[in-house]
Amino acid sequence: MSTIDIPDEHDDIDGIDVIDIRSGDRSTPFEHRVEPVSKTTKAIKFLENHPDVHISPAAVRRIVFGAVEPGLLEDVRLERHRVETGWLSVITYRAYTLLLSPAIENDRLLDKAHYAADPGASDDQRVLAMPTAHETDATLVYADAMDDLLAAIDRASMRVRGNNPQEVGRRIVERPLTAVPATFLKPGRYPDDDLNIVDGNSRWASCTAGIKIPVSSINPTTAKDTVPLLPSHLMRLPLAERRDLVREIVKNAHRDINAATGTSKAARAKRDQAAKLLNAITVPVQVIVGYTDDKPDMGMRRFPVAVRSLLMRMNIGVKPFDASSQNGVTAEEIVTALFDAGELGENAEAVREVLLGRVDVTDAMKALGLNPAFRDLRFTFVVQQLTRKEPRLNAIMAAKLDKRRLQVTHRSGPIVELGLRSYSSLPKEKMAPVRTALDTGCLWQALADHEWTVENIDNDQAVDDLLKRADNDIPARLLLGVIAMVTLVTSGYLLAPGGSAEQIVGGIKVMRTGVGTVIKTVLDKKEGRQVLADAIKRIRANQRPRWWADGQLIERDDWKGSDFNAHLRLAANHGFAPEGYQNDPTATELEDKALTAFQASLTTAAANLDDLIAMRKKNGTDTELSWIVVEPSFKQLKFMDKDLARISEDEPR
Question: Which residues contact 219 (CB under 8 A, 6 or more apart)?
Answer without folding.
Answer: none
